[in-house]
Design a protein that fits this description.
Length: 706
């Protein structure tokens, strides 16, 4: 059984076990949650009270002191104290009713528009003052707000400084329902015992567990939110490091049960490739070989910047395993990436007649019948190089003689392996590949059980990517540039953070953006979209069409971030760059600059904040992922809401290895202290910790839904 060889650490899905029995209670038992709401929650992965308490907001709305009209900021949520002037009008456009009016203070006017709220015509009176709160737009010289929330003075004042949680939702579920349900879960669960010894908390000035869990949902203000987040981040890191320490103890120096020898195929492939391997690639390859041929099982991480050429190293390792008579598997975090590896390997196998490799693709997208067939081929040993997604590690898959496991884009899994197949008690070689260059000091803690090879050299002959960080008013220029590049035969990516309209105000979404671009660019330009809610087959079709050059401009969410290789793409444009961490921006940028042509990256910064501008400027200054990671570490300031920033990094839910690097370090030394006192976590005060460490938190993160 392959599955239990991996300890999976995740974000996103709860299924949390904590000491308290009330945590396990089904949410249906909560007053006010009926069957229908219960089902919707289930859809979001929430079954128990514990899950609900761990269903964290993805962001918060801050109720600010109302601004004057002249101080409004475009594209962000603002509150403004204005008086309704003139008349309130109502008109119809097709089946849409539109209510509009103007509101003003002594410094300016704002146009208000409401859709399908005809009743407002009678309730809003000229001359009345309200606090209007919503996203501000600017059309020509006019500020406008669509569907602002309206408050009376006395309603708004007590809210100032408060943060309101915003939860990830599903159709039919309102933010309010989640808020109410979480409140009820807190009441039902009651006071929670802390499970981290007080002396550790005191040393780091961390708040209690109960308080932190409540604070992450309903923070009184930004600083309380940060207190809550830090405490929960510490929990995550501590449990993570404890797992790691216990793992390492079990996994140290395991005998190599799959001895291999150098094979002619690899040397031949290296010599016949159209390029020469870089020095760094060669060094990493030597490391891999000495593991595979040596006395102990391989546990190695290949850390290389985007585009440094890690895939070919995976192929060489797989080739070695196959020619030595074993099976090898390569696991990618998304269907798209798995399919891409499969296609490119197939091509290389054919081109260089690597007849020892019998390759197969196994992903969730296969039909049941095809899946069964591939599973048969795997168990009977008809194939020896298996590429896939997490479908590779499901129970149904029985390998005949698997000797090598490779994970691509390791940071997206956050997978900790010890390479032990519990069912058979055999240890496979493990090779993890990551393009998140984590600063060495943190890597030693976070990847403590792996040897590390760094591929810190880009192939020669690549032109450095040209970068610009610009405001939204640069868009017309950017679209013209994109048009020119398409005319020159190149392809373009545009990244938007959201999938559909209305998910988050002031943030671009793939759906509307695609329509807008189709209207803006010349008709001959083929614009398509890609996002994680599409069916796997549809996603694959889009990616394949893009790789075939049938699509010129691909508007996508960050699903594209992971490893896609289309060397003909020369422009990357990232909307709302302010919402991404530097390392993630670097990953996104890494989708271009992979061929011989000059590539460009346009970062649109929609925030007017000075610190943000300074942070993004790093992207202008360097294309070196390791430098960027160091900067990320330095620059992350407090107050950056999680949820937005940390996606794409090592997969902690609230912890951010950069921002919270002090906690990462502290948790490492605390874990050592705890284990010194209590090596097996048997003392009663460590019982919950033990439970957490032993929980296979949930099974896997499906990043394809991002
Ligand atoms: P990553 O490290 O980001 O996974 P890939 O393995 O996808 O990068 O490689 C990016 C591109 O660079 C591919 O098109 C690959 O064929 C090419 N490549 C790999 N190694 C070299 C090299 N030594 N010289 C030139 N091109 C290379
Ligand atoms: Mg890659």
């Amino acid at each position: 059984m392959f599955m239990s060889g991996f300890i999976l650490y995740l974000k996103g899905c709860g299924v949390f076990v904590l000491g308290k029995r009330e945590f396990q209670e089904n949410i249906i038992e909560l007053k006010g949650i009926g069957e229908k709401t219960g089902k919707l929650f289930n859809k979001l992965g929430v079954y128990t009270c514990g899950d609900l308490l761990y269903y964290f907001p993805r962001g918060y709305d801050l109720f600010e002191e109302p601004k004057r009209a002249c101080d409004l900021k475009v594209n962000v949520i603002c509150a403004c104290r204005l008086t309704v002037i003139g008349s309130v009008t109502r008109r119809h456009v097709r089946n849409l009713s539109i209510v509009a009016f103007e509101a003003a203070d002594e410094t300016g006017r704002v146009k208000m528009t409401f859709f399908n709220a005809p009743y407002l015509v009678n309730s809003i009176k000229s001359g009345t003052t309200y606090i209007f709160r919503g996203v501000v737009h600017k059309k020509g010289n006019f500020f406008s707000m669509d569907h602002p929330k309206m408050y009376k003075e006395e309603e708004y004042m007590p809210l100032i400084g408060h943060l309101q949680p915003r939860y990830p939702l599903t159709k039919g579920m309102s933010n309010n329902t989640v808020m109410k349900s979480v409140e009820k879960a807190f009441i039902s669960v009651g006071k929670m015992q802390d499970f981290i010894p007080e002396e550790y908390l005191d040393k780091l000035d961390l708040i209690g567990f109960s308080e932190a869990l409540h604070g992450i949902h309903f923070p009184e203000n930004a600083s309380k939110l940060e207190d809550a987040r830090r405490r929960l981040a510490y929990n995550e890191f501590l449990v993570f490091v404890l797992k790691l320490r216990l793992l390492k103890r079990a996994g140290e120096e395991v005998k190599n049960q799959y001895p291999m020898m150098e094979v002619a195929d690899t040397t031949r492939l290296i010599e016949s490739l159209p390029y020469r391997l870089t020095g760094a690639q060669m060094r990493a390859w030597e490391d891999i070989k000495s593991d595979l041929f040596g006395p102990y099982v391989m546990n190695r991480l290949i850390q290389g910047d985007v585009g440094s050429g890690k895939t070919v190293l995976a192929l060489l390792a797989l080739l070695t395993a196959a020619a030595n008579g074993y099976q090898g598997a390569l696991m990618a975090p998304t269907e798209v990436l798995a399919a891409q590896h499969y296609e490119s390997f197939k091509e290389i196998i054919k081109k260089y007649k690597l007849n020892n490799l019998k390759i197969a693709l196994l992903t969730g997208a296969l039909s049941a019948k095809d899946k069964k067939e591939v599973q048969r081929q795997i168990s009977e040993g008809e194939v020896n190089c298996i590429i896939g997604t997490n479908a590779l590690i499901q129970d149904k898959v029985n390998y005949k003689n698997l000797a090598l496991v490779i994970t691509d884009e390791q940071h997206r899994f956050g997978v900790r392996q010890r390479g032990t197949f519990a069912g058979k008690g055999e240890s496979t070689h493990v090779l993890a590949m990551s393009a998140t260059p984590i600063p060495r000091t943190l890597a030693i803690i976070l990847y403590g059980d792996l040897s590390i090879s760094v591929v810190d050299e880009l192939p020669v002959g690549r032109l450095p990517i040209k970068n610009c960080v610009v405001g939204p008013n640069y868009r017309p220029t950017a679209y013209k540039f994109i048009g020119d590049q398409v005319n020159a035969g190149h392809q373009v990516y545009v990244i938007c953070p959201m999938i559909e309209e209305g998910e988050l105000d002031g943030v671009e979404n793939v759906t509307s953006y695609t329509q807008m671009l189709r209207a803006t660019l010349s008709e001959s330009v083929n614009v398509e979209m890609l996002h994680g809610k599409m069916k796997p087959a549809q996603k694959d079709a889009i990616m394949e069409a893009f790789a075939r050059r049938d699509i010129d401009v691909l508007v996508s969410t960050t699903v594209i971030e992971v490893g896609i290789n289309v060397p003909n793409a020369t422009v990357m444009m990232i909307e709302n760059s302010e919402r991404f961490g530097l390392s993630q921006l670097h990953q996104l940028r890494g989708r271009v600059g992979r061929g011989v042509d000059q590539s460009y990256c346009i970062f649109i910064n929609s925030s007017e904040d000075e610190d943000t501008a300074k942070r993004l400027d790093v992207m202008n200054k360097t294309n070196d992922g390791f430098k960027i990671a160091e900067e990320d570490l330095k620059q992350r300031g407090p107050g950056d809401l999680f949820g937005v920033r940390q996606s794409g990094e090592l997969c902690f839910r609230v912890g951010d290895i950069y921002h919270d690097s002090d906690l990462v370090r502290a948790s490492a030394s605390d874990a050592d202290m705890i284990l010194k006192l209590d090596p097996e976590l048997e003392l009663p005060q460590h019982s919950v910790l033990k439970e957490l460490v032993n929980t296979k938190s949930a099974d896997f993160v499906d990043f394809t839904t991002l």
